[in-house]
Amino acid sequence: MAAANSEFADVCRRAADILARVEGYFLDRVLVDTAPTDGSVDIHLRLGPTAPDVVVSLTKVVHASIEHFLEPDAAFVDEIRLKHIAGGHRSWPDGLTGLGPRPPGTPDVAWLIIEGPMRVEVVAQTITVAVAQVY
Question: Which of 28, 40, 94, 114 is deepest in the core (most CB within 10 A)?
Answer without folding.
Answer: 114
